[in-house]
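Throughout our pipeline, every protein is held as a single compact record rather than as scattered files. Such a record has a labelled line for the sequence and another for the backbone structure tokens. This encoding replaces a full spatial description with a residue-level series of whole-number codes. For reference, a complete record is included directly beneath this paragraph.
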Amino acid sequence: MYRSPAPPAKDVVDDVGPDRIYRQARLRRVAVWAALAAGPLALFASCASDRVPAHTAVRSAAASAPPVAIQDPSGFAQLFVSLWLRTDGTADDASLAALHALAPNVDLRTAQNTQAPALSVAQCASVRNTRLRAGYWSVVVGCEAETAGQTAVRYFVVPVEMDQTTGGMGSLAVVAQPAAVAAPAPAGVPPFLYPDDAAAGTPLAAAAAAFLTAYLAGQGDVSALLSPGAHIPAPASALYAQVQVGQIAVGQSGMDGSVPRDGASCEIWVQVTATDQSGAAWPLGYALKMRARAGRWEVASVESGPALSTEPPPGPAPTITATAP
């Protein structure tokens, strides 16, 4: 039996014709006028769905930004000086290739006497960086070296170039021979900010001694000696077998006596002699922040170092030069 063909499917695009577009625009205008009648808050709500939040675009742009190379040639210069001191004209091909990869045009040390004692490098460390211009650095490297049982610290200035082109960002090279220089001048040490001393047996001294004994030798519970909310993980207790607390300097006056009211705090500097399992004595120092609670002192934190005066450190004594009359 013959059947008439089914009518063609209506194109989806036909649903979005001029009439529907007109109706949507009209409804949107009605919604805006209704929002105006209801107040500014409703108007903001009616328009919010049609806007793209600006912070979304900013966040997307930040996420797609390429990482920035950090310009710090310290480790590169340390590696070079360590290899350079260990390598001379008699080195094997692998050692020469490793050195030339860091410094293509730098000459090697020459061994005039094959019977001369070898140079042993214990460690190298960068002690000062100077940025000469964009991508060009001068790095001072100190090395602990030993020759024939004699240990000495030598210092070298290393010129390092960083390739900042698009294809070579972060590429480093030593551009010339290192220069042997004198050791950097030592900095003056400013005085500590601890005007008073805590006598042995006072509550403050006893609390500090109990904490450091538990902290370093595992003799006691560290957590029971901490202020509420403090978290101070102790090192391995097997490192030290005995702890002897020496001088305790106090940063605030009037704390070396009865325990003050709850919440009062003070900073102390404690000198300790810790003896390890082999009997070797280690002089150590700890800056502690103490807090009073319930009639006793507790440890609130272990500081990174002692508090120092902001006054300029004492310099060397002036040299008096006699002049002829």
Remarks:
- The helical segments are 18-38, 40-48, 54-64, 74-86, 93-102, 203-217.
